Amino acid sequence: MVKAIRAHKTGGPEVLQFEDVALPQPGPGEILMRNRAIGLNFIDTYFRSGLYPAPQLPFTLGNESAGDVLAVGPNVTEFKAGDRVVVVSALGAYAEERIVPAASVVALPDGVSYEAAASMMLKGLTAEYLLHRTYKVKPGDTILVHAAAGATGLILCQWGKALGATVIGTVGSKEKADLAKAHGADHVINYREEDFAARVKEITGGRLCDVVYDGVGKDTFMKSLDTLKPFGLMASFGNASGAVEAFNLGILSAKGSLYVTRPTLNTHTARRETMVAMAKNLFEAVTSGKVKVPVNATFPLKDAAEAHRLLESRGTTGSTVLIP
User: Fold this and answer.
1) What is the pTM of this model?
2) pLDDT score of 317
3) Long-range contacts of 302-307 (CB under 8 A, 24+ apart)
4) Is the pLDDT of residue 319 over 90?
5) Angle of the 151-162 helix axis to the 114-129 helix axis, nearest 10
C-alpha cells in the first residue's frame, strides 16, 4: 500500500483525501516509479472541480512527477530500474509511487533536480510549444504574456527574451511585477492599476504585438485582441479566470484579420518522437541557463488541499511542488 491524494467526487479542495491505495505490478508497456517530487498545476484544479472530466471516480490527481524507476513491465526496453525519469502527462501523480505508461516518460538528465523537473514539465513543455510551434517567436517580435509571474509565465518571459523578442508581461501586484522583470520581461503592466491594452499601445508606439499568450481566459481574452497587430495571433491556452465565452468571429476581421487558437499540450505530445524532441529542447534551455525554473514553495503531499487553495487564490509565484 502507498499513500495518495484521491478525489471521490468533484468540487473544492476539501474533496481531496489522503489515503492508502494498492498498486499492481506494472503491465506491458508500463513503469512503476517512486515519486521524489510532484508538480502542482492549474490543470489539477480543473480535474478536481470537474471542469475537465476525470476518467473515473475516485481518481488520483496530478499529471507530472519526477523520481526513480522501481520496476518495468514486459516490452519496456527504453528504461530500467534505477533510472531517473520524469512523467510528462499522465494522471495519478499525487502519490508516493505510481504506475505510468512508458510512452509518457522521458529520461531525466543528471543536471536537472527532481524538484525542478517535477515543477517544469507541463509548464515548460507548454512554453515550448507556444514559443516554438503555436507561434515561432523570432528576434524582433513583441509578445504579450499574461500572468507573467506565474510558473508558465516566468518560463515564457525568460525563453521569449532568449529568442530575441521584446516581452511585455501583465501581473496583479508590484511584487509580481518585480519577479517578472527579474525573469526577462522588458515591460510589466499591473492590470489592477492600468488598462493593459492601452498600455501595450503606448509601450509599442502603436505597433502592438505579434502574439498574445493567455492562460487567464475569460477576464483577459477580449481586451487582448486589442493588443494585436494585423494578422496577430491570440494563443488562449488556459482558463484561470474561467472559460472564454462564445464571441462573434466578425470581431477578428474588424480588428485586423486576427488569428485565434486554443492549443493543448496533449495534442502536441501525442506522438512520442515529438514529445521527446520538445523535452530535449526544454532541458537544453534549462541546462544552458536560458531558462531558470524557480521552485518557490513546497508542500508535503498530505497538504495538497492547502496547496490548491493557495494556487486558486493567486497566492503563488513561480512553481510549487508536493513532496511525498
Assistant:
1) 0.85
2) 64
3) 302/3, 302/5, 302/18, 304/5, 304/16, 304/18, 304/40, 304/61, 304/94, 305/13, 305/14, 305/16, 306/13, 307/40
4) no
5) 60
